[in-house]
């Protein structure tokens, strides 16, 4: 498949974006279409078709709508963006233009739906993985981002609670707390509390009055980080439909905050999920998108190292060995360039030498270089603060044991897996559970060969899985 351009995906049609924004502004001002029509000097029928995305608006309509709805010129700016761009379109077999799934829904509406959607998915447990949508990985392009930035800038409340810098700092501290809990205890622990906080306290703050636009943007970025965290926790616990929904909302929040590095961070997580689910081509495209333009250019060296190493992992899964090797080198260079004085976003506290070694090892394993992968997994185990990053430490040990077993080192594998099971105590994570599932068939083979240590480790793995499913 040829390399895709930097924009990567077809942008949503300009008239659909304009129609959505016109409707939102009209409803914000509590006007019906029939009330708005004479104020814009255009007919009710035309306005209705514009809102539905069936008619392309004129500049004259945009100007009059801006005046009638007191938008500060938002609709005319959006009209200029949509009229000067010439987006490429996705088309179905029948030739109809396709709009990327989910991206035209209002951000705050999608956010409010997250909790209800999670409950529905939990009730229909068969959908936890089966409902993951490949089509939803088709993301919109630059014109969508520009429209979202304008939408965010136009959000305001005319009364009620006022969000100050202190309120924003309190929310950030809470997000940091939940992030550290996830790293230590796994995505299955306290995720319901994260979703509750996101869809109640944080969602309420988003619709309040903000002391400044800087605070509004900071709040939307922080909400995006929390939506990303809830998605990552769902991914870690194999709740893949919920994870995808939360990642999508997180990107929308990042766009309204005009925070490209955060969007890149989230796209990197979506790529990671796609790799694990076996969608290697889509994973490589997502990882490439995470590095495109300001998403990488405005990111810190540490965050760019993370984006590059996940890109390498996705490329390896997609069979692009040389490109994967080059991406690994870029990741090493970026982390080496990171300094102690760099102002890092809170979401990056976990990523350092140990995390880079872990992802590098996974890439080398997928490239078939088991000795090099073994060395990198050992490096990750040696350099990680296991009491802080317990979940990933357990997963790293599980992967290391698998490679040792593949190389015929049965005793070493058993010892590594025993240590992994020690680390899993108190961790609620589908990824740790999967490592225990994966080791048992290998341990059964070791037992048949008379490896004594395999009996105890296998029993411990069985006990862990029995407890984890209750």
What is the gist of this entry?
Helices cover 70% and strands 2% of the residues. The protein is mainly alpha-helical. The radius of gyration is 24 Å and the shape is elongated.
Labels describing this entry:
single chain, 470 residues, mainly alpha, two-stranded antiparallel ribbon, two-stranded parallel sheet, disordered N terminus
Strand order of the largest sheet: 1-2
Percent helix among the residues? 55-70%
Distance separating the two termini: 45 Å
Please state the structural category: mainly alpha
* Mass-distribution shape: elongated
Percentage of residues in DSSP E strands: under 5%
Major β-sheet profile: 2 strands, antiparallel
N-to-C SSE string, H for helix and E for strand: HHHHHEEHHHEHHEHHHHHHHHHHHHH
Number of helices: 23
Q: How many β strands by DSSP?
A: 4
Ranges with pLDDT <50 over ≥5 residues? 1-12, 84-101, 121-130
Mean pLDDT, nearest integer?
86
Report the C-alpha radius of gyration, rounded.
24 Å
Strand and helix map with partners:
Blueprint lengths: L13 H15 L4 H8 L3 H8 L7 H11 L4 H11 L5 E2 L5 E2 L8 H17 L3 H4 L11 H13 L7 E2 L1 H21 L5 H16 L2 E2 L2 H24 L3 H17 L3 H17 L3 H11 L3 H4 L3 H17 L3 H17 L15 H14 L3 H14 L6 H17 L3 H15 L5 H19 L3 H17 L2
Parallel strand pairs: 3-4
Antiparallel strand pairs: 1-2
Helix pairs in contact: 1-5, 1-8, 4-5, 5-8, 6-10, 6-12, 9-11, 10-11, 11-12, 11-13, 12-13, 13-14, 13-16, 14-16, 16-17, 16-18, 17-18, 18-19, 19-20, 20-21, 20-22, 21-22, 21-23, 22-23
């Amino acid at each position: 498949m040829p390399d895709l351009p930097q924009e990567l995906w077809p942008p949503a049609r300009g008239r659909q974006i304009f129609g959505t924004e016109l409707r939102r502004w009209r409803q914000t001002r509590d006007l019906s279409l029939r009330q708005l029509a004479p104020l814009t000097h255009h007919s009710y029928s035309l306005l209705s078709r514009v809102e539905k995305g069936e008619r392309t608006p004129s500049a004259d309509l945009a100007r009059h709508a801006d005046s009638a709805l007191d938008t500060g010129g938002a609709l005319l700016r959006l009209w200029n963006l949509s009229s000067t761009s010439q987006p490429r379109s996705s088309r179905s077999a029948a030739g109809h233009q396709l709009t990327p799934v989910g991206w035209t829904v209002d951000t705050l509406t999608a956010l409010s739906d997250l909790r209800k959607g999670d409950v529905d998915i939990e009730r229909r447990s068969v959908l936890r993985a089966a409902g993951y949508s490949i089509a939803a990985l088709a993301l919109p392009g630059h014109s969508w981002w520009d429209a979202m930035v304008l939408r965010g800038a136009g959000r305001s409340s005319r009364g009620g609670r006022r969000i100050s810098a202190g309120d924003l700092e309190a929310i950030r501290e809470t997000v940091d707390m939940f992030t550290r809990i996830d790293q230590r205890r796994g995505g299955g622990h306290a995720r319901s509390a994260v979703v509750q906080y996101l869809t109640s306290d944080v969602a309420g703050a988003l619709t309040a009055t903000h002391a400044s636009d800087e605070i509004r943007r900071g709040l939307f970025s922080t909400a995006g980080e929390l939506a990303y965290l809830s998605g990552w926790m769902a991914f870690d616990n194999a709740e893949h439909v919920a994870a995808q929904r939360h990642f999508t909302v997180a990107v929308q929040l990042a766009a309204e905050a005009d925070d490209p590095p955060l969007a890149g961070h989230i796209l990197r997580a979506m790529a990671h999920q796609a790799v694990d689910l076996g969608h290697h081509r889509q994973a490589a495209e997502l990882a490439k998108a995470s590095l495109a333009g300001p998403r990488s250019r405005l990111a810190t060296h540490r965050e760019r190292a993370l984006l590059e190493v996940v890109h390498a992992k996705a490329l390896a899964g997609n069979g692009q060995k040389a490109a994967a090797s080059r991406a690994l080198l870029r990741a090493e260079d970026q982390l080496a360039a990171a300094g102690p004085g760099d102002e890092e976003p809170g979401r990056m506290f976990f990523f350092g030498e140990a995390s880079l070694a872990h992802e590098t090892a996974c890439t080398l394993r997928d490239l078939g270089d088991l000795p090099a992968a073994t060395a990198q997994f050992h490096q990750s185990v040696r350099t990680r603060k296991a009491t802080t990053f317990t979940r990933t430490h357990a997963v790293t040990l599980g992967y290391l044991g698998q490679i040792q077993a593949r190389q015929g080192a049965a005793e070493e594998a058993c010892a590594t897996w025993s240590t992994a099971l020690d680390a899993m105590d108190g961790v609620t994570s589908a990824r740790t559970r999967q490592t225990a599932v994966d080791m048992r068939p290998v341990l059964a083979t070791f037992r048949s060969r008379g490896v004594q240590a395999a009996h105890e480790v296998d029993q411990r793995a069985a006990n862990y899985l029995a407890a984890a499913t209750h």
